Amino acid sequence: MTEAALVHTHEVFKFTAHASIDCVFPLFGADKERLWAPHWNPVFVWPAQADDQQGMVFTVAHGDRTAIWVNTVLDPISNTLQYVSVIPEVVVTVITLGLTVAETRSGGRSTHVAVTYDRTPLSAAANEIVHAMAARDRKAGLEWGEQINSYLSAHRHHE
Question: Is residue 105 part of a domain?
Answer without folding.
Answer: yes
